[in-house]
Amino acid sequence: xxxxxxxxxxxxxxxxxxxxxxxxxxxxxxxxxxxxxxxxxxxxxxxxxxxxxxxxxxxxxxxxxxxxxxxxxxxxxxxxxxxxxxxxxxxxxxxxxxxxxxxxxxxxxxxxxxxxxxxxxxxxxxxxxxxxxxxxxxxxxxxxxxxxxxxxxxxxxxxxxxxxxxxxxxxxxxxxxxxxxxxxxxxxxxxxxxxxxxxxxxxxxxxxxxxxxxxxxxxxxxxxxxxxxxxxxxxxxxxxxxxxxxxxxxxxxxxxxxxxxxxxxxxxxxxxxxxxxxxxxxxxxxxxxxxxxxxxxxxxxxxxxxxxxxxxxxxxxxxxxxxxxxxxxxxxxxxxxxxxxxxxxxxxxxxxxxxxxxxxxxxxxxxxxxxxxxxxxxxxxxxxxxxxxxxxxxxxxxxxxxxxxx
Length: 406
Description:
There is one protein chain. This protein folds into 2 domains: 26-32 and 41-292, Alpha/Beta hydrolase fold, catalytic domain (Rossmann fold, 3-Layer(aba) Sandwich); 304-404. The protein is 22% helix and 24% strand. It has helices at 2-15, 79-91, 112-126, 145-155, 195-202, 209-212, 242-253, 282-292, and strands at residues 28-30, 49-53, 62-68, 95-100, 133-143, 178-182, 228-233, 258-263, 304-310, 313-314, 317-324, 332-337, 340-343, 353-361, 374-377, 388-390, 400-404. The strands form 3 sheets. Strands 1-2-4-3-5-6-7-8 form an 8-stranded mixed sheet, sandwiched between helices. Strands 11, 12, 14, 15 and 16 form a 5-stranded antiparallel sheet that branches. Helix 3 crosses helix 4.
């Protein structure tokens, strides 16, 4: 009977499109195979490790993320703040490594967690060739207490805490190239600090402000802190928005590129905010930020300037964008004022073919119906081919003259 039942299962599986997929075991890499520093034993909870989520094979080395799930330093929200994030990163062409760091609930306190995240970043870089990773595009993503750990990685990367092993891997840089902080714990001492995270992280020293204060990561931001993306909800009562805002303001004071999104609704621990039509847009904002910072694809850029006219009159106000063929490469956008626009080499279009889009005030095109007071076009005339420019040639491009007839 068992064989007959199995035959029926296989028959229906084939009819529905093939054999049932067998879930491949996820690669799990122990960060210190010979034993972690400060370890209290040899159980699974004593051995920090990463779960590897490889990106689809590409001829070029791609970006990577170390992902730090939250859980108040007492547990790990390894699904919605780990696995789901890793698979999203795979969709952007990035290899992801979900970090299972040591926890206060298992007797591990600072600096064990800092050792673990530094080791993970160094290990990824040291093994870049193995996973086809660009070692200069290794980012950190963290949520809640994992966001605090990610913020320590972004600010304390030069520290060598007790237990640093000083082996070949520990000679590699631990500085992330990008930091992403989702509703992060930032302060350990302010009124808006998350007390549970402080207790689990510091253990016996939890009541010692002198021990906690150096882990207020908003006070540890410097000009060397990597570009940072932050998001939060105003409704979050577990880790209030003052945490993320203080880190953002510290980035501003230190001239660190940063982008902050605070959504009105949503409790703590929302992850992707799946099912919420507003909150679930934050990953798209992040993907755009990563793309336009050049993190998702390596591409040289060129300076460009020029003028735009409509029926011979300079565009009063508008935007011009240059979108490359590679959807992961940066899209360059410049404001048009009184017909003129200009982008330097840092922000200009990628060196290669691009599609041009111009958005202008509908006041510049009387009689042409627009949307929300603007008119968008990709052509010089309604019957013309869309603009397609190629900036792959040597030297600085000649000023562009774009004339629109309506």
